[in-house]
Amino acid sequence: MRLSLAHIAVAFALSAPLLGQVHDRDPLNDKEVDQLRETAIEPDKRLKLMVEFTKARMLAIDQLRSDPKLAKDRGKRIHDLLEDLGTLVDEIDDNVDDYNQREADLRKPLKEIVLMDTEFQAKLREIKNAEQDPKNIDEASDYKFALDDAVESVDQSATTTRKLLEEQNVKFAKKKK
After folding, report:
1. Average pLDDT value over all residues in the chain
2. Three-state DSSP string of 45-89
3. Alpha-carbon distances, residue 22 vs 18, 88, 143 (angstroms)
4. Of 101, 126, 139, 160, whose CB count within 10 A is highest?
5. What is the DSSP letter of 131?
6. Under 8 Å between Cβ of 77 and 64
7. pTM above 0.85, yes or no
8. Are 86 and 149 in contact (CB under 8 A)?
C-alpha cells in the first residue's frame, strides 16, 4: 500500500506543472452563454449577439489601455481579453461555416462581421504599434503572443468573411431572380 501511495504522490508531483498549462477558460460569462443558447437556431440573432460580445471585449481592452487607474495587472488583463477576443472571433467563424453549410442567408450578419473585423484590425494594429513604446514594453510582454494570435484570428476572419459575403450576394441574388 505504501508503494501505491508513493507512486500516486510521484505521479501527482510530476503532473503538477502541467495543471497550470490547462488554462481553458470560457470567454463568455453565464449570462452570455444563456443568451446564445436561446438563439441557437436563429443565425442572424446568434451572430449579432456574438459580435456584441466580441466588441465588448475590445471595448474593455480600450478602457484598460486608456485609464491610468487601471494600471495594476493591466498587461495580464489585456492578455486575457485578447485571448477571449481571438477565441470569440474564431467561434463566430465556426458558426458562420455551420450556418453556411445549412444554406442560411447570412448576408446581414456577414456585413456586421466585416465591419467588426475591419474595426478590430485597426485597433489591434494600434495596440501593436503602442507595444513598441518604451513605457509600454514591460506591460506589452504580458500580452504579446495573445495579441499576435488575435491579429491572426481577425485577419483570417476578415478574409474569409468578405469572400463568403461576396459568394452569398451572388448566390442569393440568383435565387431572387
Report:
1. 88
2. HHHHHHHHHHHHHHHHHHHHHHCHHHCCCHHHHHHHHHHHHHHHH
3. 7, 19, 18
4. 139
5. T
6. yes
7. no
8. yes
